[in-house]
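We give its fold:
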Amino acid sequence: MEQTKNYKLPIVPIVTMFFLFAMISFVTNLAAPIGTIWKNEYAGANTLGMMGNMMNFLAYLFMGIPAGRMLVRIGYKKTALIAMAVGAAGLFVQYLSSIVGADVAVCDMGEGISLKLDFVIYLLGAFICGFCVCMLNTVVNPMLNLLGGGGKIVEEEASLKALLADFAGIGGFKLLVHGGGRSATKLASDMGVETKMVDGRRVTDDEMLRIVTMVYGGLVNKNIVAGLQALDVDALGMTGADMNILRSRKRPVKEVDYGWVGDVESVNGEALASLLRAGIVPVIAPLTHDKQGHLLNTNADTMAGETAKGLAPYFDVELVYCFEKPGVLRDENDDATVIPLIDRELFGKLKDEGIVSGGMLPKLENALDAIDLGVTKVIITKASAIGDLTSGTHIVAKI
C-alpha cells in the first residue's frame, strides 16, 4: 500500500528567521537616525555623527571569531538568545545616553564645544549592539571551511601531522574530505594488483575496490580521525554510505570502463549540517554508494566539490583544495609560476595547452562547478597555507 508523506510548513523556524533578520536590521539601522541627532548636537560634525556606525563595525573586529566559536560550542539557539540579550543591553545603554551625562564635559573640542559624557555612553551602547549584530549574523549566515586533502599530505606522518594541526586551528564549522591514492597504489602493488589510471581517475575492478575500501575507509580515514581527536577535535570518520550522505551511480561505460567508480548524484546536506551543528567534524573518505548495496570508488576532489555544493544552502562555504604545491602552476617544476586566478575560459585554454593535466583536471572541473552552484570561495593551495588563504589559485566565475 502506497503511503503519502504529509509535509508541514516549518512556521516556527521561518518566523524565528524573520525575527532575527528584523533584529539585525533594527540594531544596524538605528545608528543612522541617532547619528543625525548627535551631528546636530555638535554643530554639524559629520565625523561624530558617523561614530555610532563605526562602533558597530569595530565590534565585528573583536567578535567575529569568538561568535563562530560560540556557535560551534553552544549551538544556534543559545547563541541567538545571548545575542538578543546583548542587543537589549546595548539598546538600554544607548537609552541611558538620553538621560545621563548631558551636563558632564569629558574633553574640550575647541571653538567652545565640549564632548559630553552622554555621547561617550551612546558610543558604548553602539559598540555593545555591534556584538549583538555580529553574533546574529553568524547564526543566520554561518561560515563552513571545507578542506579537500590528497596526495602525500594525508599519507605521510610528518605532513599529515602539520595539516591536522593547521586544520584544528581553524575556527567555526569545518569538514575534511581526504584521498589516499598513493597508499592504495602501494598496497595494490604489494598484493600484485595492477593500477590503471585514466585522466587522473582510478579504474576500479572488484579487487581494486576491496583495496581502496581498506585504505580509504580504514587506514587513512582512521589515522586522520585519531590525529584530530588528539588535538581535541571531535572528528567522525565516514564514507558516503554512512547516513546516506553521498549517493552515486556507477559510471556508465563509454570510451573507458572505469568499473566500480561512482558519479555523485545526491548529497544529504541536511544530515551533514546536523552533524556540524552538533559540534561534529566529519572526515569523509572517497567512497560512495549506489543505494543498491554497492560501494563505489569516487574521486576525492569530486566528493569535496559535491559536498561543498550540497552544503551551500546551509552555510557560506569556503572550499579549499590542498596538496603539495602552492597552487596551479604554469610550470610544474617552478613553484613561482602560480596562476592566481582561473575561470572556465582560462581553464579550457590551460587544458588545451597541456599546462594542466592528470589529477589537476578533476580538481579544477569540480572547483569551477562549485563556484557556479553557490559555493562562496574555492582555493587551490599548499597544505601549509590553509591558515592564510590570500595565496594560492583562486577559482572565480569570471576574470
About this structure: Residues 51-96 form the longest helix (46 residues). The chain has a mean pLDDT of 84. Residues 182 and 222 are 16 Å apart (CA to CA).
